[in-house]
Amino acid sequence: MNTQIVSTERSIFFPKFSLSSTSENRIQENGVEVEGKVKTKLLSMWNNVKYGMKLKTNFSKESPVWLLGKCYRRIESPSSDITELGTDVAAIQSQTDILNPDDEGFEGFKKDFITKLWLTYRREFPILNGSNYSSDCGWGCMLRSGQMLIAQGLISHFLGRDWRWLPDVTKAPCIQSITHRKIIKWFGDKPSLNSPLSIHTLVTLGEAAGKKAGDWYGPGFVAHLFRQAFKLASNDNYEFDSISVYVAQDCSVYIRDVLDECTLKNDKWRSLILLIPVRLGAEKFNSIYAPCLTTLFSLKQCIGIIGGRPKHSLYFVGYQDDKLIHLDPHYCQEVVDVWAPDFPTTSFHCRSPRKLHISKMDPSCCIGFYCATKQDFFYLIETVQPLVVPPSRSGSGNEYPMFIFCDGHSKDAQVTPKRLPPQDLEYSIDSNDSDMETEAFEIL
């Protein structure tokens, strides 16, 4: 919901007194500040009530669960046909009850899901540049979803896909724990060169394209923001020299552009986060792409998809049957000072997986892949191309793929590549903001 947090009207908390103009202005400013904080808290409470209405998600014991390239099957239970997760939407209580190193099967899914970084609305962070916003509650969900997608790419890069976060560990921090905290700091909610992927950085970068705090950000627009943020981050953070972000153009990945971006001196490879904005339908999600979309979650290079319901962004990480498993950024939490020693990390992890029927998905989304090596990139090209072509309904074999790989540079493309989606399905970051000004309050 595109809600202005701080009003510019005279505060309702202060009556009119006979004061000097300076004193009166100070009272008005203080009143506006107090009123803004009250509005922020009320909006946060409302979002959290909406977010927490459904506290349990059901998982079938018969069907496998796919989570970013890994498959989990529930161990047979004689007492129940379903398992229920997510009784604590705040993800702040002890999680030792669901973390058992000796467990396998579906317990592995729980450990894997909890490991994903959960980046949500925050309140009472430093005011965003050029605005009165000290919270992104109600409008920043796509930015947060993008942060989670990028965070998964960074975790895969620096910690590996098999790394697992273990809460309630009391032993001295290891190198993996230190790296885990460092990644969280990069997304810290403050304007800092040491937090190059913060919401403050993203909003500032968006201003050059006419966006500002409080506006709706589409998935393709967010992808380009992160590409810019990575380039800037490498100026002050050496860790970003080893990884690059490439954003596909018009559903096309130009292979030579990627090789130029990622090939360093002596033929060394800079790891790749590949972001592909697509539109899978006109007004609604086209069901013909459903099997293509879910199959992507079986690829080891997949780091997720940002999209969601219309005007309600989510970060999709897997699926079971015809429902997508996701992390929801709409839970508003207090800002965490990630620069304090041993800052708490529990609020950055969620134990409440949610599901959304794939038919309810918004057609605009952005697909993410991580390729650690050049071989991974070529393997992705070879593997994914037949998977993104939907099954033919007419038998003609002329269905449009979700996206394509083109051999060459984008600057040399003289004509539109073959088999691109028709014009009415092309993704555009210049979407009509008037259709996205409000976020519908729907019970999850």
From TrEMBL:
<keyword id="KW-0072">Autophagy</keyword>
<dbReference type="GO" id="GO:0016485">
    <property type="term" value="P:protein processing"/>
</dbReference>
<feature type="domain" description="Peptidase C54 catalytic">
    <location>
        <begin position="107"/>
        <end position="381"/>
    </location>
</feature>
<keyword id="KW-0788">Thiol protease</keyword>
<dbReference type="GO" id="GO:0019786">
    <property type="term" value="F:protein-phosphatidylethanolamide deconjugating activity"/>
</dbReference>
<dbReference type="Pfam" id="PF03416">
    <property type="entry name" value="Peptidase_C54"/>
</dbReference>
<dbReference type="GO" id="GO:0000423">
    <property type="term" value="P:mitophagy"/>
</dbReference>
<keyword id="KW-0378">Hydrolase</keyword>
<keyword id="KW-0653">Protein transport</keyword>
<comment type="similarity">
    <text>Belongs to the peptidase C54 family.</text>
</comment>
<dbReference type="InterPro" id="IPR046792">
    <property type="entry name" value="Peptidase_C54_cat"/>
</dbReference>
<dbReference type="GO" id="GO:0035973">
    <property type="term" value="P:aggrephagy"/>
</dbReference>
<comment type="function">
    <text>Cysteine protease that plays a key role in autophagy by mediating both proteolytic activation and delipidation of ATG8 family proteins.</text>
</comment>
<dbReference type="InterPro" id="IPR038765">
    <property type="entry name" value="Papain-like_cys_pep_sf"/>
</dbReference>
<keyword id="KW-0813">Transport</keyword>
<keyword id="KW-0645">Protease</keyword>
<dbReference type="GO" id="GO:0004197">
    <property type="term" value="F:cysteine-type endopeptidase activity"/>
</dbReference>
<dbReference type="InterPro" id="IPR005078">
    <property type="entry name" value="Peptidase_C54"/>
</dbReference>
<dbReference type="GO" id="GO:0005737">
    <property type="term" value="C:cytoplasm"/>
</dbReference>
<dbReference type="GO" id="GO:0000045">
    <property type="term" value="P:autophagosome assembly"/>
</dbReference>
<protein>
    <recommendedName>
        <fullName>Cysteine protease</fullName>
        <ecNumber>3.4.22.-</ecNumber>
    </recommendedName>
</protein>
<dbReference type="GO" id="GO:0015031">
    <property type="term" value="P:protein transport"/>
</dbReference>
<dbReference type="GO" id="GO:0034727">
    <property type="term" value="P:piecemeal microautophagy of the nucleus"/>
</dbReference>
<keyword id="KW-0963">Cytoplasm</keyword>
